[in-house]
Amino acid sequence: MAEARIYKRPKSAMQSGKARIDEWVLDFAPAEAKKPDPLMGWSGSGDTRQQLQLTFPSSEAAQAYAEKHGIAARVHKVPPKKLKLQAYADNFR
């Protein structure tokens, strides 16, 4: 049985806008460990599900997909955002 995790896509540090942060992502857990290639030294494995990322509009849709296809999925909830409101003058206290 395949294992996966469902999480909300985080905002990138290089991203100022809010594009694609409302998507939920289903990532598969690695089925086998990566091992170095003897010729080139690159790490890789025969597990092709590691390359797959499915996006959904909500966590419920992602959970429904996982249940339909027999995937054991864990949902990682998003912690609430805490805004620290400050005035510019607070820098000089």
TrEMBL record:
Pfam families: NDUS4 (PF04800). One of its GO terms (biological process) is electron transport chain. Transmembrane segments: none annotated. This is ETC complex I subunit. It is found in: Membrane. It comes from the Bacteria. It comes from Aurantiacibacter aquimixticola. Its main location: membrane. GO terms for cellular component: membrane. InterPro entries: NADH_UbQ_FeS_4_mit-like (IPR006885), NDUFS4-like_sf (IPR038532). Keywords: Electron transport, Membrane, Respiratory chain, Transit peptide, Transport.
